[in-house]
Amino acid sequence: ADDLALLQGDEVETTSDGGEAGLPVVAIVGRPNVGKSTIVNRIIGYRGAVVQDTPGVTRDRVAYPAEWNGRRFTLVDTGGWEVDVAGLDASVAAQAEIAVERADVVILVVDATVGATDTDERVVQMLRRSGKPVILAANKVDSRTQESDAAMLWSLGLGEPYPVSGLHGRGSGDLLDALLEVLPEVSAVANPLPADGPRRVALVGRPNVGKSSLLNQLAGEGRVVVNEIAGTTRDPVDELIEIHGRDWWFVDTAGIRRRVHKAEGADFYAVLRTQQALEKAEVAVVLVDASEPMTEQDVRVIQLAIDAGRALVIVFNKWDDVDEDRRLFLAREIEQELRRIEWAPMIRLSAKTGWHTNRLTRALDVALDSWDTRIPTGRLNAFLGEISAANPHPVRGGKQPRILFGTQISARPPRFVLFATGFIEHQYRRFIERKLRENFEFEGTPIEISVCVRE
Ligand code: GDP
Ligand code: GDP
């Protein structure tokens, strides 16, 4: 009972690594090299967390969970994304505009050592039109003597410039305090996942894998339910499609059907859009073009789905276009690239001919069932007892860490916290994950295992 009490408190904090549905969204915008990414790192660095096993954490994503003074929000980083150097002004403004559209509050970062440039002015105009609250961060104020540089930025007409040093952390507390003052409790842009109603599906994948073809095929087979469910407000970009007598929400379909922003800032836009669709969905269908060699981008989209903590189904599309040679090669690619996610259902189909598309909903159900699973604490501990008796953690430096107790702190996806007497090695955690999957059939869902060390 003591252990459970602890879990209610602040000491164990596990959040999904993507943006979390419903949390207010803060976008960081500004010219290249003003220090956006440095500031983002500093802000997300404040997040105190238990040791967490998050394989393959990359900087591919753009939205991060963040927290200040007990308030949680999602931070969208536009730093690190290439802008078109030829049209610097326009592309910085365009990129910022995309981010701002889906944010509740904006932090504009300006390099105080440079002062306000034309590009900064242009972004300011855009921000003003957006009507969103803006916090002005005057970055690279590494010492008190530089604070007068920050004061020059009053000229931008955005109110008080907050002098900060992303590099050293100076002033970031004041900046975050100011942010909290304008941060809404409830986001106006990120909708929380509804607790019931039709399940929510995101079709994701790199361009041209066949997302819109599959959507059309499914909508063609089924019925597109046009009217809204009474008493609910839905994003018009979501489509309700009836398949085999059941309704499913396909989220962010407008982004699939309308091919916008394909050229400029395509990478940034594609990742942000994918993350936003994932955020709204319960299950991700990642499409891969089976007729072509798998790319890094395919693997990256899969990683985004896992990071977002969504149930996962992999679709190998264009099977009508796959010959024997390609089939063998693909099997090898799967072995190499997707070994880590052998728990995800994989379906071969053809969006073009409709072949096997009827298999999709079954796979979605399997993945969602796993995603929803809750293992009673008693059963979990019986299982943990058995595996640690049969395969104890290796002795290290004369000590043998033991797992004292474990509990599932959430479902959707299943998250576990283990309390141990010492550091649990990565390999052993992997082993536990494998055993958990063997025992409780988590087909189609990522699971998270955090370890809390108690002396
Ligand atoms: P971004 O393109 O806006 O994301 O900028 P980065 O975060 O990548 O930073 C660009 C450069 O500015 C890097 O070399 C940083 O180390 C440097 N930088 C960032 N913040 C500060 C700061 O507060 N002080 C100083 N002196 N340099 C900084
Ligand atoms: P999206 O960018 O992911 O939405 O991809 P589209 O649905 O626009 O498809 C990109 C291209 O692949 C189009 O030319 C489609 O006709 C083609 N395509 C999509 N699905 C299939 C399929 O199952 N088989 C074949 N042979 N082509 C497909």
From TrEMBL:
Arranged from A to Z, the UniProt key words for this protein are:
GTP-binding, Nucleotide-binding, Repeat, Ribosome biogenesis
Keyword Calcium in annotation: no
**GO annotation, biological process:** ribosome biogenesis
Q: What positions does the domain EngA-type G occupy?
A: 24-187, 199-372
GO MF:
GTP binding; ribosome binding
Q: What SUPFAM superfamilies would the database entry show?
A: P-loop containing nucleoside triphosphate hydrolases (SSF52540)
Recorded hits in Gene3D superfamilies, A to Z, give: 3.30.300.20, P-loop containing nucleotide triphosphate hydrolases
- Amino acids binding GTP 2: 205-212, 252-256, 317-320
Q: InterPro entries, per this entry? A: AAA+_ATPase, G_ENGA, GTP-bd, GTPase_Der, KH_dom-like, KH_dom-like_a/b, P-loop_NTPase, Small_GTP-bd
Sequence positions that bind GTP 1: 30-37, 77-81, 139-142
Q: Which domain of life is it from?
A: Bacteria
What family classification does the UniProt entry report for this protein?
Answer: Belongs to the TRAFAC class TrmE-Era-EngA-EngB-Septin-like GTPase superfamily. EngA (Der) GTPase family.
Q: Which HAMAP family match?
A: GTPase_Der
Subunit and partners? Associates with the 50S ribosomal subunit.
The UniProt function text for this chain reads: GTPase that plays an essential role in the late steps of ribosome biogenesis.
Q: What is this protein called?
A: GTPase Der
- Which species is this UniProt entry from? Bowdeniella nasicola
